[in-house]
From TrEMBL:
<dbReference type="InterPro" id="IPR036291">
    <property type="entry name" value="NAD(P)-bd_dom_sf"/>
</dbReference>
<protein>
    <submittedName>
        <fullName>NAD-dependent epimerase/dehydratase family protein</fullName>
    </submittedName>
</protein>
<dbReference type="InterPro" id="IPR001509">
    <property type="entry name" value="Epimerase_deHydtase"/>
</dbReference>
<dbReference type="Pfam" id="PF01370">
    <property type="entry name" value="Epimerase"/>
</dbReference>
<dbReference type="InterPro" id="IPR050177">
    <property type="entry name" value="Lipid_A_modif_metabolic_enz"/>
</dbReference>
<feature type="domain" description="NAD-dependent epimerase/dehydratase">
    <location>
        <begin position="4"/>
        <end position="235"/>
    </location>
</feature>
Length: 341
């Protein structure tokens, strides 16, 4: 099978390329050349900007890919451009989406109040408000203001002449994670903090995570299996309360401390989580497991070990601030610990 990947050189992409190549498929990677990735020998590279794709019709026809995998569809216009470029050439487009399409995400952000039942299925209600990052002063990974995976999915799944497949991703962690999701906790562990304190409501909150190689395996299966045509899938491998997740992480890091759930009245009066923990955010992954035969290729223990090794070797220049919990200083933590004794 011939696969044309748009993106493919940053974080998740190289793992997808590796797995497709290992499966024996012919892979071409189209990227801007801003990220250097060690791709397997035999993988073709074309450098360019995605806005140029509709003008590359003759070159794309010569490549004649069976499936197009678009890793960097952020906006409706991105999706329209991809579908226009490959209509009449490819047999299918696979789009990488996110579980932020669900109404539960708006509830989590405090934009809606009615709690959505979990686990989320691929048929759970979507957000009614578009452009979730539009009003955010700082958008993760410099996402554009008109970012919205709902619009991306509508375009990809509504073209009768070019069928689509959608993979909705969780919070992805692992080596080369640009958000360094686990680093703030690892830093405390490596500095021998006796405890990591979690607000009681956050300690029991369940989120949706996926290790990069496991996520890549799911994407590769969706690309290579024609049964995925016209379907939407979830993928996730770690969906447990935060206190358990961080306890597993601490064990893998060789940390001797404890993760402690702290009642609200012990916390500073002006300190609040930036999201509504009454809305949990995890998904049902039955469909991809039953229809495409997905299962994790990397165990949780090994996934955490690989992530820890990479984070220790590649600390970020600044402390990530994706939850707000990183704002806790050690003096405050020590004071709370004294009160808990």
């Amino acid at each position: 099978m011939k696969t044309f990947i748009i993106g493919g050189t940053n974080f998740i992409g190289p793992s997808v390329v590796d797995q497709l190549h290992h499966m024996g498929h012919e892979v071409t990677v189209f990227h801007r050349g801003k990220t250097v990735a060690e791709l397997p020998r035999g993988v073709k590279e074309i450098k360019g900007d995605r806005t140029q794709l509709p003008e590359m019709k003759s070159e794309l026809q010569c490549l004649s890919p069976d499936v197009v995998l678009d890793m960097i569809l952020y906006t409706e216009q991105d999706a329209l451009s991809t579908m226009k470029a490959f209509q009449g050439i490819a047999q299918r487009v696979v789009a990488i989406s996110s579980i932020d399409v669900y109404r539960a995400y708006n509830v989590l952000l405090g934009k809606e109040s009615e709690i959505v039942p979990v686990p989320l299925t691929e048929d759970s209600p979507l957000r009614q408000q578009l452009y979730p990052f539009q009003d955010m002063p700082q958008r993760a990974l410099n996402a554009p203001a008109d970012y919205d995976k709902i619009l991306v999915e509508r375009v990809v799944m509504s073209n009768p002449n070019l069928p689509g497949t959608v993979i909705r991703l969780p919070m992805v962690y692992g080596p080369k994670d640009p958000l360094h999701r686990l680093f703030p906790y690892l830093k405390r562990m490596d500095e021998n903090r006796p405890a990591i304190l979690l607000p009681e409501n956050f300690a029991q909150w369940r989120g949706c995570y996926g290790y990069v190689e496991n996520v890549a395996q799911a994407i590769a299966l969706a690309v290579t299996n024609s049964q995925a045509t016209g379907c939407i899938y979830h993928v996730a491998d770690l969906q447990i309360p935060e206190i358990e997740r961080l306890s597993y992480f601490g064990k893998a890091a060789g940390w001797q401390g404890q993760v402690i759930s702290v009642p609200k009245h012990y916390l500073p009066a002006d300190w609040n989580l930036p999201f509504n923990t009454e809305q949990e955010w995890f998904v049902d992954t039955t469909r991809i497991r039953q229809e495409l035969g997905y299962s994790e290729v990397v165990s949780q223990e090994e996934a955490l070990k690989q992530t820890i090794n990479w984070e220790r070797s590649n600390p970020p220049p600044e402390m990530p601030q994706w939850t707000g919990l990183e704002l806790f200083d050690y003096a405050t933590e020590d004071e709370i610990l004294t009160c808990l004794v």
